């Protein structure tokens, strides 16, 4: 019984089991107020239990070597459970969340590419805020690591998006919660900034140093939920060296995603590649990088609207959806005919 | 350098350099941010150099007035440098900058992209010695436009120079808290070619022609903020006469910026400088 392995008090455990909550997945979809009612405990206590449970279900899998035949291996059943109960990070645009299967997935590397001004940094900042949404509102309650190689991260924008997030949570509160007192929003917009670990990189050597440092950093800060990474572009004379370095970095990032149950979001630029006699638009950094990404989202202009296109995904089919960059952040496109194009 | 040193705590506000006009500052939500590269693209004669000169002076304003209390350096590739205009403008700043403002503006002509790179690598010591907090490059386009053929190999070489220049600028901007402003020219857009949309407008127009900022996608990837200035000619009819005159109106627009919505503003160039107008 997974609940029995949770680091909670014996009486809490007893109450959980007798109320029918025996597995971690059963706890993943219940709200704190419901749990409090079922167990006849305070809502704060219920919140604590849920927090412990969600953290466990993430990191538990790695430590479960004793039950596996091969150390570190899992059964497919376990993996399905895990995926069903994994919390995805919302993009705040429900259309985009839909084609992503709920949002950005942890344990995976998602690449986001597009021309300047299309919204890559906007999406990056939105996700750095959204990863912090408390568990009570369906979020990961995690922290973000933002590795900025471009210098595009503006605090003012992050604060603006954080304010909108707090307002959204308050609105949700007033709709859903009957007992407003119990769940006052304790987060201020400024608190969101405190939970973003911001690295500013200006050269290739700094980039390699940070990527190598990340493993140590994240093991010290276990509550990091998302890692944003803007790759540093530099034209290498030696293509073989570039392939090796990029490949090495890609592997490290993938390993970080899996080991620490993080979502890794790579923000990439668009460049033109000369092939077959003409210039074609393509994501920068070449094929060696592309293979490392589990998912790929391309952001592009279609007339006067911004569109997001799922270019690569192991579980979702190719689709495009319009989105908007508003003062509040990334949101659904306001147009009445929502053209979700399936490929 | 340890990796831990690269972790920064976020300030609540990015320091900004005022344009010395409240309307223009409102468009930019405070002014030109430090630590990033702001590009001003326009066809010639619309006002990019005028704005650059204004910024060179504004940098010396005390921080309470939105300045950086520091010197500035202008690397220029367009000749001749408008010394007289700069002097004329400086006279309007004497109330805030008592000592000769021109003493704190350093001018350096540029001859080639490699020359610029060389200068930038030597800039580290100069910046701290002379308390420089604004770098203006006027213009980046003039440096590149004649030197490169239109072959893929040459264009690749050109792109690689863009990255080197931009990354040096950004690294210094980050290290010393500098504001960096780069002006760029525009090229005419030929209708039939598939023009790639970059930023808030499907097409940018100036003086009645479709234009786009020079240096292409690679350079666009290098800048953080792109502002576009343009001119429209309006026919103004004289009262009671048949002959109307053409009035040039100037506008500025945010093409892309991480912290600014798409917005534009009209401006005029007066003797005292560039000022936004509310019409």
UniProtKB/TrEMBL annotation, chain A:
Protein name in UniProt: DNA repair protein RAD51 homolog 3
Limits of the RecA family profile domain: 85-270
Similarity remark: Belongs to the RecA family. RAD51 subfamily.
Ranges that cross the membrane: none
Subcellular localization, as worded in the UniProt entry: Nucleus
Coarse class of the protein's main subcellular location: nucleus
Single annotated GO MF: DNA binding
Superkingdom classification of source: Eukaryota
Source organism: Forsythia ovata
Cellular component terms (Gene Ontology): nucleus
Pfam families, per database record: Rad51 (PF08423)
Role played: Involved in the homologous recombination repair (HRR) pathway of double-stranded DNA breaks arising during DNA replication or induced by DNA-damaging agents.
Gene3D superfamilies referenced in this protein's UniProt entry, alphabetically: P-loop containing nucleotide triphosphate hydrolases (3.40.50.300)
Assigned keywords, A-Z: ATP-binding, DNA damage, DNA recombination, DNA repair, DNA-binding, Nucleotide-binding, Nucleus
Biological process according to GO: DNA recombination; DNA repair
PANTHER family, A to Z: DNA REPAIR PROTEIN RAD51 HOMOLOG 3, DNA REPAIR PROTEIN RAD51 HOMOLOG 3 RAD51C
TrEMBL record, chain B:
Compartments, as annotated in UniProt: Nucleus
Single GO biological process annotation from the record: DNA repair
Keywords annotated in UniProt: ATP-binding, DNA damage, DNA repair, Nucleotide-binding, Nucleus
GO MF annotation: an example: ATP binding
Residue ranges constituting the RecA family profile domain according to the UniProt record: 13-186
InterPro entries: DNA_recomb/repair_RecA-like, P-loop_NTPase, Rad51_C, RecA_ATP-bd, XRCC3-like_C
GO cellular component terms attached to this protein's record: nucleus
Main location: nucleus
Protein name: DNA repair protein XRCC3-like protein
Organism: Forsythia ovata
């Amino acid at each position: 019984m997974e609940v029995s392995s949770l680091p909670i008090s014996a009486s809490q455990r007893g109450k959980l089991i007798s109320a029918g909550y025996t597995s971690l997945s059963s706890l993943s979809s219940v709200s704190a107020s419901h749990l409090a009612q079922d167990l006849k405990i305070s809502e704060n206590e219920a919140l604590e239990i849920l927090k412990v449970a969600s953290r466990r279900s993430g990191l538990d899998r790695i430590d479960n070597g004793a039950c596996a035949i091969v150390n570190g291996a899992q059964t497919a059943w376990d993996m399905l459970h895990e995926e069903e109960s994994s919390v995805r990070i919302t993009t705040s645009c429900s259309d985009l969340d839909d084609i992503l299967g709920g949002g950005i997935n942890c344990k995976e590397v998602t690449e986001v590419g597009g021309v300047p001004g299309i919204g890559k940094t906007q999406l990056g900042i939105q996700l750095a805020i959204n990863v912090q949404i408390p568990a009570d509102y369906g979020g990961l309650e995690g922290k973000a690591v933002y590795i900025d190689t471009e210098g595009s991260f503006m605090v003012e924008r992050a604060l603006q998006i954080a304010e909108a997030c707090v307002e959204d949570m308050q609105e949700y509160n007033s709709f859903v919660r009957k007992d407003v007192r119990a769940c006052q929003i304790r987060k201020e917009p400024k608190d969101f900034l405190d939970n973003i670990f911001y690295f500013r990189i200006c050269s290739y050597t700094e980039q390699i140093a940070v990527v190598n440092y990340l493993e140590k950093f994240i093991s010290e800060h276990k509550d990091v939920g998302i890692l944003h990474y803007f790759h540093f572009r530099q034209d290498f004379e030696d293509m073989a060296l570039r392939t090796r370095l990029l490949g090495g970095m890609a592997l490290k990032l993938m390993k970080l995603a899996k080991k620490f149950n993080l979502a890794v979001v790579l923000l990439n630029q668009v460049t033109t590649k000369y092939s077959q006699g003409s210039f074609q638009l393509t994501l920068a950094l070449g094929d060696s990088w592309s293979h490392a990404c589990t998912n790929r989202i391309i952001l592009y202009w279609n007339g006067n609207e911004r569109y997001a296109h799922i270019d690569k995904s192991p579980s979702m089919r190719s689709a495009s959806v319009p989105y908007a960059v508003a003062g509040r952040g990334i949101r659904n496109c306001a147009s009445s005919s929502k053209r979700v194009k399936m490929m | 350098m340890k990796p831990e040193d690269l972790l920064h705590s976020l300030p609540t506000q990015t320091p900004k350099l005022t344009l010395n006009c409240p309307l223009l500052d409102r468009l930019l939500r405070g002014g030109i941010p430090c630590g990033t590269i702001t590009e001003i693209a326009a066809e010639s004669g619309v006002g990019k150099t005028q704005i650059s000169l204004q910024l060179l002076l504004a940098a010396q304003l005390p921080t309470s007035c939105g300045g950086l209390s520091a010197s500035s350096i202008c690397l220029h590739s367009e000749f001749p440098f408008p010394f007289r205009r700069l002097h004329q403008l400086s006279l309007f700043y004497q109330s805030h900058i008592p000592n000769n403002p021109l003493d704190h503006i350093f001018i350096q002509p540029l001859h080639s992209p490699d020359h610029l790179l060389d200068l930038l690598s030597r800039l580290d010591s100069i910046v701290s010695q002379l308390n420089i907090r604004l770098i203006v490059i006027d213009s980046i386009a003039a440096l590149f436009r004649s030197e490169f053929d239109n072959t893929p190999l040459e264009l690749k070489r050109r792109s690689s120079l863009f990255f080197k220049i931009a990354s040096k600028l950004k690294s210094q901007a980050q290290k010393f808290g500098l504001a960096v402003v780069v002006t760029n020219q525009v090229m005419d857009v030929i209708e039939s070619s598939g023009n790639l949309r970059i930023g808030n407008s499907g097409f940018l127009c100036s003086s009645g022609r479709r234009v786009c900022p020079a240096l292409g996608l690679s350079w666009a990837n290098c800048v953080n903020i792109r502002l576009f200035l343009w001119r429209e000619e309006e026919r103004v009819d004289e009262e009671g006469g048949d002959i109307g005159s053409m009035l040039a109106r100037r506008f500025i627009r945010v093409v892309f910026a991480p912290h600014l919505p798409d917005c534009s503003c009209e401006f005029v160039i007066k003797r005292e400088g560039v000022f936004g107008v509310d019409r």
